[in-house]
Fold this protein.
Amino acid sequence: MSPLLNSSILFLTLLSLTDCSGGRHLMPPANSIHGDTLAIDQPLERESSLLKEAFNKTFDHGLRKALDAPRLVRHATGQPYEALNVDNFDEVPNSTWFTNRNGTTAMSLAEIQRGPNLTYGPDTTSVWTVVSAKMAGVTPGFTIEDARGQRYIVKFDPPDFSELPSGAEVVSARLMYAAGYNTPENYIAYLDPKRLRIGSEAMVTVETYDKRPAKEQRPMDRSDLAAILATGNPKGLPLIRVAASKFLDGIPIGPWPYAGVRKDDPNDVYPHPHRRELRGLYVVAAWLNHADMKEENTLDVYETEGKYVRHYLIDFGASLGSNSRSPSVPRRGQANGYDFKQSMVRLVTLGLYSYPWERASQEVLFPSVGYLNNDLFNPQSWKPIYPALAFENITKRDAFWGAKIVTSFSDAQIEAAVAAGAYSNPDAAESLVAFLKERRDMTGRHWFSKVNTLDQFRLENGIELSAKDLAVARGYSDASRTSYDLSVQAPGGEMLRRWSSADPSVRLDGEWEAHGRVIVSMRPRRQDSSGQPVLIYLSRTKQAWHVDGIRRTD
């Protein structure tokens, strides 16, 4: 390609990103969100290979990103691709991916502690029938059916770290569900080995970690069950604490991809890297230190009643301070599994440079909750094990959306979620609560400092427009040191009023009714940050004013 052609492409790209009209913000947003619960034929089961995913995300993904000229130009000019599935109020409507919960309306402490659970877990008063088992992998375990006919995946804690992955599984699932994501029902249960029996058709699988064909699959016998119990209960305790994850209703059809869409699901129309709830998931996952965000920890389920696909996040045993079979380490969240940039630094410095996580303390105060240390946590530079394009496409608006959810959790709600982990040591539970509170506040202070934090716009009595400054309301900015620049503009661009106030509210003047529509601009002023104006679009009917939508210009 010639230099002239390259220059022409760059010029046209920049031109398309430039506001030449001078009035693109004078009209309200007009987003139309596609519904995703239309009845469809059952998609085929999608297979996923960890080896293939690791290669694609580590090498192919990085190369494609480096060669994506429009994306590079948009980032360089401060106009990255925005999320596609947001409504006129810059929010994510309910869908098969996400349901607005605590970020919109505060859940009760009982709701937080219950999470998605609809029962008390597997029936421990009767026999559990083992229907399948795996003898290898990160967490050996089995699938059981209880006396009620409900099936659960049962996983053991490692002998040296009792309560670690089971507690992380339950606590993170509660918080992720309250944040709005779909998660399975997860329970802490106590298994009585004497109440186990092997089903007549039970099969045992010796799995490979990367999901290649199983090394062995054969009928299960008592020696297989004894081997699994010996691994999960070497001390021969009469009751064994386990994590029990209930089978989801519907037909599992494999994991969902982080890139593109599911081609055999006509409802899946928004490319996943441009879904707000997946971009914003970065902020929530960083809060929970849920770095194990690989595809096999997701699941699509075809709901046979509605005949559509629902999208789940599963398996949280390697979150918080846990690395499944052992405590987490300082590197987790600081680097990808294979981090090309860090590898290059090591190469150039001949291995002499050491990263902060290599010098950090690895002290574990309570084995049941693992490694809990926020000294290195940066909400913007946190990294999952495998890169995800949705995370790397995150904009300030996406991050603000995620931070609104994270900071919506009160101290009491965090305590309620941790209580669901049933930790035997109260001090360990309290250390996990403190870890989550501190991480929540670090998230809020960081992302709220980068944007206009006015939100929750309301019309009182049809004439008083008010907003809530979340940075002030949630304790990250001082109200006494904050003022607001306000203005009202007619649809044609005429300035009707401009002023400053200590309160983010506007009383709509009766004289403005003649314009039919007005645009209100609100911008906080404070020493540490301001953000760009948020525009609120209002229209007038014979009876009252109505809010038609908002536009964030950050």
